[in-house]
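batch job 7 of whatever, protein = TSN13 protein
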Amino acid sequence: MVCGGFACSKNCLCALNLLYTLVSLLLIGIAAWGIGFGLISSFRVVGVVIAVGIFLFLIALVGLIGAVKHHQVLLFFYMIILLLVFIVQFSVSCACLALNKEQQSQLLEVGWNNTNSARTDIERNLNCCGFRVFDLNETCSSDCFRSRQCQPCAPIIEEYSGMVLRFVGGIGLFFSFTEILGVWLTYRYRNQKDPRANPSAFL
């Protein structure tokens, strides 16, 4: 059977949704691992990661059930949701790749000022205190604070932020193209007839 046939479209769509399921479980597992080992104490960050993982898992589940049963309604909603996710993810990925160093620095400073728990994690893991200036009057959870010889966190964070943004933008861009592939596969699969189905049945 050629790859443009019904069985091939079904198998490709199932494989794509199994990939999304694995990624979603990986996201949830990483968040749980970070909490378990004390690497992340910010429940807001963990909550966002787990919420994204659960959302992706539900989308993959809808796509998988729709592909296995050739359910027109489920496939339609799956296609629409995947298209919306593609638009958002593609835009965010392009924004990550387009940020210059000055914009990155401003975003990092805003994030630093608005999150206390994430700030504590950064200071402890990077062994630094303060963002731009090390202030002896402020409390700090890093080991270097005991010796009163800490460097500010901004230079260390900015050194890695560009690499992280490029990595996140590249991964997001890659997955956005898998999503548009999923939309195309779903559209084609919905319009194909199941050779084993009853010809008089609509769904």
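notes: The helical segments are 6-36, 43-69, 72-98, 101-114, 116-126, 153-190.
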